[in-house]
Amino acid sequence: MNGADTAFVLISAALVMVMTPGLAFFYGGMVRVKSALNMLMMSFVSLGIVSVLWVLYGYSLAFGSDNGGVIGNFDHIGLKGIDVTTLTDGKEGIPVFAFVFFQLMFAVLTPALMSGALADRVKFSAWALFIALWVTFVYFPVAHWVWAEGGWLFELEVIDFAGGTAVHINAGIGALAAVLVIGKRIGFRKDAMRPHSLPLVMLGAALLWFGWFGFNAGSALAADGTAATMALNTQVATGAAMLGWLAYERVRHGAFTTLGAASGAVAGLVAITPSGAHVNAMGAILIGLAAGALCSWAVSLKFKLGYDDSLDVVGVHLVGGVVGTLLVGVLAIDGVGGASQLGKQAVGAFSVMAFSFVVSWLLARLVQATVGFRAAEDDEVAGLDQAFHAETAYDSSAAGGSAARGTAPVHGAAGSETGKQTRKVDA
Amino acid sequence: MKLITAVIKPHRLEEVKEALQAFGVQGLTVTEASGYGRQRGHTEVYRGAEYTVDLVPKVRIEVLAEDEDAEQLIEVVVKASRTGKIGDGKVWSLPVDTAVRVRTGERGPDAL
């Protein structure tokens, strides 16, 4: 076992974990106050659901022995057959548990990415069910295609170093399919739906940026030169993408916006994910600039085409993922680039798009037809925080003096005859 | 008696307060307000989507004054709140029937 590599992968996995709450804040700040907690929860709950499913059967389906290039098997259900002495093959020599843990974080993040597209209008329980179905029927198979030995895109030598195809294109197109089933928010294009807290958005983007070093560099599965290249390129491309987005905005709208800086950074992180191990720092700058400007342009498509991708998951993750996945065919410096690689990259990107779109659409329809995906109109208008979580994000009456006073909980009364009662606070 | 109401830019509040104190005004009421005049509001941009925000933040100041002081008081408020830029606000006055000091029950000019 290689201790340095193992330590690196474990730390990287912990960094990737931070991306999911980071994403929750990134999205949470962009929605209106009345549904801010629901937005946080839609991402956060993925840490619960997917972590469990990953151990139960997810790892086995994604990385178990291949069946026809499309899916793993059930040999490692409940992580059967793996113990503390089991090491990955080849040069890595890290415990399989470290790899399982690292890949778990990817499986958690990917469905959470889609939540931004459905902001403010779906039932929380239905969303939880959708996550469970989606990772099972979309993410685990696609992860197998791209990363598992025997997976058909892996064998085709499609480059997806850290998840441009399996994570970002997959989530972006899945979000689009779900949005088409769910429909638009009430008031889309009529009401102002401004972000309620840009500082939260910036905090979330910063956490994503930080965690992404684990996401990208950790994908080397070794503390080596590839990891170092990836870490450096991640930083450079992200910086360039932020500048690309800001420049586009300044020309088109006359201001350098905070939301633009945060969004541009995320677009750059997405774009460098598949490609960063195969380009030099100059290539990373080009990829970043292209992703920043293109994604900034792409987010306006929803108004032209009329779909309500609330927080631009399609514009940022799908478009950013495609930019990075294709550009590696053009900008690779280690002999893997060229026309034939570009063709392979396109096959990878578009086959995942087609598969994910169709299955995601079917799953969303299934949820819609059975438990109902869309929240009740009253709940949507009043805000989902109260409807599904019995909470509010901000209590402006807490400072005192407000008429909006609640009743005090009865402490320590469980089991007593009066345990169910609450009493009024004395005025 | 007159009620003088001024809707002004929030950052001029300190100057107006100081000017009123210097004039000898004993009390005033300040409320956060929002609104627009001829300049309308402003535009915000979020990922290319432009939102027109009509109502801009203002401060509303109310002062009760005796009839003979009213004109001069209006001048004091106008001078202290003016920046010369668009959106400086408005000042107006209304006749007041009566005023009562709650603690003592005094009425009219004695209540000011």
TrEMBL record, chain A:
Keyword Magnesium included in the entry's annotation: no
SUPFAM superfamilies the UniProt entry points to: Ammonium transporter (SSF111352)
Keyword list, A-Z: Ammonia transport, Cell membrane, Membrane, Transmembrane, Transmembrane helix, Transport
Gene3D superfamilies: Ammonium transporter AmtB like domains
Annotated transmembrane regions: 6-27, 39-57, 94-114, 126-147, 167-186, 198-215, 227-248, 255-273, 279-299, 311-333, 345-364
One GO cellular component term noted in the UniProt record for this chain: plasma membrane
Compositionally biased intervals (Low complexity): 398-408
Annotated ranges, domain Ammonium transporter AmtB-like: 7-394
InterPro entries to which the protein is assigned, alphabetical: Ammonium/urea_transptr, Ammonium_transpt, Ammonium_transpt_CS, NH4_transpt_AmtB-like_dom
GO molecular function: ammonium channel activity
Location of region: Disordered: 398-427
Entry-linked PROSITE patterns: AMMONIUM_TRANSP (PS01219)
Localization per Swiss-Prot or TrEMBL: Cell membrane
UniProt membrane topology term: Multi-pass membrane protein
Coiled coil feature spans: none
Subunit structure, interactors included: Homotrimer.
Family: Belongs to the ammonia transporter channel (TC 1.A.11.2) family.
Cited function: Involved in the uptake of ammonium/ammonia (NH(4)(+)/NH(3)).
Annotated protein name in UniProt: Ammonium transporter
Lineage: Bacteria, Bacillati, Actinomycetota, Actinomycetes, Kitasatosporales
From TrEMBL, chain B:
SUPFAM superfamilies to which the protein is assigned, alphabetical: GlnB-like
Keywords, alphabetical: Nucleotide-binding, Phosphoprotein, Transcription, Transcription regulation
InterPro entries: N-reg_PII, N-reg_PII-like_a/b, N-reg_PII/ATP_PRibTrfase_C, N-reg_PII_urydylation_site
Chain positions found as O-UMP-tyrosine: Y51
Subunit structure: Homotrimer.
Cellular component annotations (GO), alphabetically ordered: cytosol
GO BP: any one term: regulation of nitrogen utilization
Superkingdom of the source species: Bacteria
Organism: Streptomyces armeniacus
Molecular function GO labels: ATP binding; enzyme regulator activity
Full protein name: Nitrogen regulatory protein P-II
